[in-house]
Amino acid sequence: MGCSRIYLVDDDDAVRLSTQALLEMFGLQATLYSSGAAMLQDLKWINGGCMLVDYEMPDMSGLQLIHEVRARGKNLPFLLVSAHATIPIAVEAVKLGAVNIIEKPYRADKFIENVNTMLQLSRRMDEEQSAQEQQVDPRSLLTPRELQVLEFVVQGHLSKQIAALLNISCKTVEVHRSNITKKFKVDSVAQLVGRVLQIDPEMLNKSSLA
Fold first, then answer.
1. Which of 30, 37, 136, 141 could lock onto 8 through a cystine, CB 3.0 to 4.6 A?
2. CA–CA gap between residue 40 and residue 61 (Å, rounded)
3. CA distances (Å), origin 203, targets 93, 108, 147, 164
């Protein structure tokens, strides 16, 4: 059931901590923010997950935060929490894709039920995103030089050897290798080679200098 990527945004310290404690009782972890602005500072590092957002916050309401999150290209599922959920608020929340609107005070069992629904949606979106990324050949994102470096890496050449073969510095090769792993979204050479050979098993036999 666990998903550590719940982002809880509420300006009330007591509510924030009590909600965190309730989530932890069910094996769920949350990253806490006291304002929408605080979360937006971290947004560029956030990929996937879901949001639990209080509507009534100073400076930026919960729905204003969601508008900003959407404007920055993050489509995170969210639950809106409000002590006074009016029909216009509910309509706007639904238009923005709210999983549900939870009114305070809420029953713990109903609250967790809604959170689990949100988590299931988040996991499904992650799986769909991953499937879409698998269909795209990351080699199409590489520059001609990066593609040369990639072929040598797959063939087992070290950076020093690649530098000599391409008549460039070893430091330049390392920069290319770093860019390649970022574009392939992998963390190691082993993962990179495995991913490439899934796409093109014949790359082992190719020569960048042909």
1. 30
2. 13
3. 49, 55, 11, 20
Selection from 133, 208, 146 nearest residue 181 by Cα: 146
- Tens digit of pLDDT at every position of the chain (210 positions): 444 589 999 999 999 999 999 999 999 999 999 999 999 999 998 988 899 999 999 999 999 999 999 999 898 999 999 988 889 999 999 999 999 999 988 889 999 999 999 999 988 888 777 766 666 788 888 999 999 999 999 988 999 999 999 999 999 999 999 999 999 888 888 889 888 888 887 777 766 554
pTM: 0.62
Over the chain, what HEC string results?
A: CCCCCEEEECCCHHHHHHHHHHHHHCCCCEEEECCHHHHHHHHHHCCCCEEEEECCCCCCCHHHHHHHHHHCCCCCCEEEEECCCCHHHHHHHHHCCCCEEEECCCCHHHHHHHHHHHHHHHHHHHHHHHHHHHHCCHHHHCCHHHHHHHHHHHCCCCHHHHHHHHCCCHHHHHHHHHHHHHHHCCCCHHHHHHHHHHHCHHHHHCCCCC
Residues 6+ apart with CB under 8 A from 106: 81
Please name the residues in contact with 17: beta carbons below 8 A apart, sequence gap of 6 or more.
Answer: 32
What would the two tokens of residue 54 be? 């209080």
